[in-house]
Amino acid sequence: MNTWYFISVFLHVILAAFWIGGMLSLPLVILPGIKQHPDRIAILYKTGIAFRFYGWVALLALLATGLLNMYLRGLPFTWVFFTQNSYGILVSWKFLLFTGILAVSGTHDFFFGRKALEEMQHTDNSRLRQLARWSGRINLLLALAMAFLGVVLSRGGALP
User: Which run of H or of E encompasses 48?
Assistant: First the structure.
């Protein structure tokens, strides 16, 4: 394996940490910190918009570095590899989870989250607010599952 492979893996890990850390910082740090702030909705909106931009950049870069990692490692992009090889099946699961993350992120970022913030300006009890929370939680769980599979793959690719 060459230097480019290690650089790509390094970037992949940093991007994953950014993505997961960003999702954890909102409910664990930002929301408790602005709970009593009079402009909490505006702060939440601005924070969400900023993270949305960088989050989508990170997701696209994760896709690019993930594919580059496969290429630089010499893994084939074949149906046989993805369906009949235990390592390839785990890579397939990562692609499936990534697709789920894209779907949930898109729904959360461009529908539930945005609409929930708009509704929060008028009422504090909103069904969309609950959907935004749950879509964020589901996204975090998908991201953690992907990180776990990444660790398994980096350690040989076999689940016990």
Answer: helix 40-73
Per-residue model confidence as pLDDT tens digits over 129-155: 778 788 889 999 999 999 999 999 988
CA 92 to chain CA centroid, nearest Å: 17
Nearest to 17 by CA among 60, 50, 46, 55: 55
Q: Determine the Cα–Cα distance for residues 90 and 88; give it in Å rounded to an integer.
A: 5
Q: Coil, strand or helix: which one is 147?
A: helix
Q: What is the pTM of this model?
A: 0.86
Closest CA to 154 of 70, 60, 63, 68: 70
Each residue of 89-114: pLDDT tens digit? 999 999 999 999 999 999 888 887 77
